[in-house]
Specification:
Elements lengths: L5 H6 L5 H8 L5 H11 L8 E12 L2 E8 L11 E8 L2 E12 L4 E7 L5 H9 L5 E4 L16 E6 L3 H13 L6 E7 L8 H10 L3 E7 L9 E2 L14 E6 L1 H10 L3 E6 L13 E6 L4 E6 L4 H7 L17 E6 L2 E3 L5 E2 L5 E3 L3 E3 L3 E4 L1
Parallel strand pairs: 7-8, 7-11, 8-9, 9-10, 11-12, 13-20
Antiparallel strand pairs: 1-2, 1-6, 2-5, 3-4, 3-6, 4-5, 13-14, 15-18, 15-20, 16-17, 16-19
Bound molecules: FE2/S2 (inorganic) cluster.
Length: about 375
């Protein structure tokens, strides 16, 4: 039983400043301070963000919306950003990146979790996470934003769980009075995967400038639905020159190919690594681990490090969270997301999306 309410820990955040200064000067250990704070409330820490589950709600057959109340260490978060969620299962610390569908001023945040076939963390969260439980979160980041100038309207294209950041931005834009036309197309396999459909239908009634349509790919589409995967004809007649797209890499790439106007995108899966010159062996050196191995030019440095027994810090494995960042000592790597080549010694690289293009030394 907590000795104080979680809301008090938020109010007391400023009072912790002297303790932070003492920890910064190594006069106190953060772990000792955390033990004391934790005794007062299980979600209170000096610097780390912990949050308590307040509400669970199924918003699709395979998606659960969570409302969490954070301690006072979450600052400046915005809907549409993403964060890492950490938990420990059978002694193994697992994490995954989720998007913020709402950020409330009182410390509550909302996010939604889609079931991943075989996904240990998502299946645990969906099936076993209970109201009252405490989770650790990373700080939020991400650059998706509602367009600053969009008098002719905004187009939102989501596939699967790509709906979550766009819903966060949409909710905020409507609440702030955005009045130009908004068209949201959500691509799902089956009707039961239309996450937040009840809320979106309600928003359409409340805000005449919002139009929502679903595209169904694995069932026959109804008259008011689109059928199949994204085609440029789905956009015909929709007002707006600013487009936000979020979904798997293939979906985002196919929209990018067709859209010549202003576009912001977020892909939550990586393109497959396809080496131009075929699969080639190369030398990898993980300098801090004093490990030299034969690798290849097809898998990320993170995957290859793990294959050789290393356990590098990581989170999302998609180039989003930056928790796998290491220094490139020498050699060249290709960034799986952009295709860009990086070869400057001393530059930070995200090893989960960096594929070696020759012999590479990395500070790991
Ligand atoms: S693990 Fe998140 S950026 Fe690499």
């Amino acid at each position: 039983m907590p000795l104080i309410p979680l809301a008090w820990t938020r109010a007391a955040t400023a009072l912790l400043r002297p303790l932070r200064a003492l920890v910064a000067h190594s006069w106190l250990r953060e772990a000792d301070v955390d033990l004391l704070l934790q005794a007062l409330h299980p979600a209170w820490r000096l610097n780390r963000v912990l949050a308590q589950v307040e509400r669970r709600e199924w918003v699709a057959e395979d998606m659960l919306a969570l409302t969490l109340r954070c301690n006072g260490n979450a600052g400046g978060w915005q809907p549409g950003q993403h964060l890492q969620l950490f938990t420990e299962l059978a002694g193994v610390r697992l994490s995954r990146s989720y998007s913020l569908t709402a950020v409330h001023g009182d410390g509550r945040i909302e996010l939604a979790i889609k079931r991943q076939p075989g996904g240990r963390l998502s299946n645990y969260l969906l099936d076993h996470l209970a109201v009252g439980q405490v989770l650790e979160l990373g700080q939020a980041s991400g650059s998706l934003q509602w367009p600053a100038v969009a008098a002719d309207g905004v187009l939102l294209l989501a596939a699967g769980s790509g709906i979550t950041p766009l819903l966060g931005l949409l909710r905020q834009a409507l609440a702030e009075g955005f009045s130009a036309p908004i068209s949201l197309l959500h691509y799902v396999r089956s009707r039961s995967q239309r996450a937040f459909s009840r809320e979106l239908q309600g928003l359409q009634l409340q805000y005449p400038n919002l139009q929502v349509r679903w595209a169904i790919s694995a069932e026959a589409a109804a008259l008011d639905e689109l059928s199949g995967r994204f085609q440029v004809s789905h956009l015909s007649g929709l007002p707006g020159s600013s487009l936000l797209v979020c979904g798997p890499h293939g979906f985002v790439a196919s929209v990018r190919q067709e859209w010549a106007g202003e576009l912001q995108s977020e892909a939550f899966s990586l393109p497959p690594a396809t080496p131009d010159a075929g699969l080639q062996p190369l030398q990898l050196q993980f300098s801090r681990s004093q490990l030299r191995v034969t690798g290849d030019n097809a898998s990320s440095l993170l995957v290859q490090a793990e294959q050789h027994g290393l356990r590098p810090a990581h989170g999302c494995r998609q180039g989003i969270c930056s928790s796998c960042t290491c220094t490139l000592v020498s050699g060249a790597v290709r960034d799986l997301r952009s295709g860009g080549l990086f070869s400057e010694p001393g530059q930070p690289i995200r090893i989960c999306v960096s594929v070696p293009q020759g012999d590479v030394v990395v500070d790991l």
